[in-house]
From TrEMBL:
Subcellular compartments: Cytoplasm; Nucleus
Annotated organism of origin: Chaetoceros tenuissimus
Pfam families given in the database record: Ank_2
GO cellular component term of the entry, any: nucleus
Protein known as: Protein arginine N-methyltransferase 2
Bilayer-spanning residue ranges: none
Residue stretches making up the RMT2 domain: 147-407
Key words, A-Z: ANK repeat, Cytoplasm, Methyltransferase, Nucleus, S-adenosyl-L-methionine, Transferase
């Protein structure tokens, strides 16, 4: 960015000067670098350039040093919130590691807004025929562990249960479901039945290895609906006698086809759970539109397997916030209970790609109806009624003080 090198304004020396200014918190110098960079690109590329050796960006440097005003400035100038360094860390990770929570909140807000806008743009493009969600995304030049998990051809693949019956694998040897999930599925089952209450009407979308369905059966549901779309998994269900279990109704097909049928029958659910494989993020959004129509009021509970952005904790948090805002628009409140979970490296033997990346905390979604939404629905928006929340729902999978569960 030095004026004597205007023909090469983005050389290594210029990048290092920008990073040092961000570390030092020198807003005046940063502003001058940005204005000089604006002569070549707008927004200025200087806000986004990363060190070639480390991958550190100006936003990462400012976040690591705790300079909130610098982070705000860089975001305003187009710095990408989701750029990652050579270690796979983003600016939000740097801020979290140093406990700069004001910067963490700033970056979560920026990331959420960006992702919601991007999601809306992708959906609009799909509606206009410009993008086909059934086309598998390119995986060229990506590490196996960071390949997208979307697999539009999954239902046309053969799947198999391994010899130990501890994993369900697709043709690529990617895991559809694994035994280590059992403690989590037990917690999900307890959640959607309102603290393991018996006699509920429940729905599970995605049978897989039948882990959550086994847990739900122990709670003697009044009616237990299972939607499963893969023919090999459906065949295994029949061989294991799931179609003969009391109060179990298997709906063989895609949930996109089966839920409208159940809705036409007037079926409502006390508890709903979503755990499909290979679908696009827009499918989860579409499923939520059915949650808003088929989850019983006022005490219905919904949850889903939370594998959103599994390879980066900060990105995971942003994805959870996006889901929370979407559900909020439908009158649903969301919280995420922290569950301790240990997944040993040996669990992945024979699996090509991990879908869980070494974290020991799982954020379990608990989605319930908002009291104010129900009041407005029944009495109209113009009437104000005091709602008593003293007798709020409690669950054995949450702790009232810190929302932590050990599994």
């Amino acid at each position: 960015m030095a004026t004597e090198q205007q023909n090469q304004p983005y050389n290594e020396e210029a990048v290092h000067k920008m990073l040092q200014a961000c570390t030092d918190g020198n807003l005046q110098l940063i502003s001058s670098y940005l204005e000089e960079s604006r002569q070549y690109t707008n927004p200025p590329l200087a806000a986004a350039l990363q060190d070639q050796a480390t991958g550190i960006s100006p936003l990462m440097a400012a976040a690591d040093a705790g300079h909130l005003n610098i982070c705000q400035k860089l975001l305003e100038e187009g710095a990408p919130w989701n750029a990652v360094c050579r270690k796979g860390l983003c600016a939000g990770d740097y801020a979290m590691n140093k406990q700069h929570w004001d910067i963490v909140n700033l970056l979560v807000d920026a990331g959420t807004k960006a992702e919601l806008l991007l999601g809306a743009a992708i959906r609009l493009q799909m509606q206009n025929g410009g993008m086909d969600p059934n086309l598998a995304p390119s995986t060229e030049s990506r590490p196996v562990g960071h390949e997208p998990c979307t697999k539009p051809d999954y239902l046309n693949q053969n799947v198999r249960y391994n010899a130990a019956n501890t994993a369900l694998l697709d043709e690529d040897d990617d895991a559809v479901m694994m035994e280590w999930e059992r403690p989590l599925m037990d917690a999900h089952a307890s959640i959607i039945t309102g603290n393991s209450q018996k006699g509920k009407v429940v729905l599970n979308v995605g049978f897989g290895m039948g882990i959550i369905d086994t847990a739900l059966q122990k709670l003697e549901p009044k009616m237990h609906f299972i939607i499963e779309a893969h023919p090999d998994v459906y065949k295994k269900m029949l061989n294991d006698g799931w179609d003969k279990r009391p109060n179990v109704r298997i709906c063989f097909g895609r949930w996109q086809d089966e839920l409208p049928k159940l809705m036409n029958e007037g079926v409502m659910f006390d508890g709903m759970f979503y755990d499909t494989y290979g679908e696009h993020f827009t499918d989860l959004e579409d499923f939520h539109s059915y949650v808003a129509k088929m989850l019983s009021k006022p005490n219905g509970i919904y949850s889903f397997f939370n594998g959103l952005a599994p390879d980066n904790l900060f990105f995971h948090g942003v994805a959870c916030q996006c889901v929370k805002l979407q559900l909020q628009q439908m009158g649903l409140d969301s919280e995420f209970a922290t569950c301790q979970i240990e997944v040993k490296d040996s669990e992945w033997d024979g699996v090509r790609r991990k879908y869980w990346h070494g974290r020991d905390v799982y954020y379990l979604p608990i989605v319930t109806w908002n009291n104010g939404h129900i009041v407005r629905e029944h009495f109209g928006a113009g009437i104000q009624i005091q709602v008593n929340n003293d007798k709020r729902r409690k669950s054995d999978a949450t702790d009232d003080d810190n929302k932590k569960t050990k599994i």
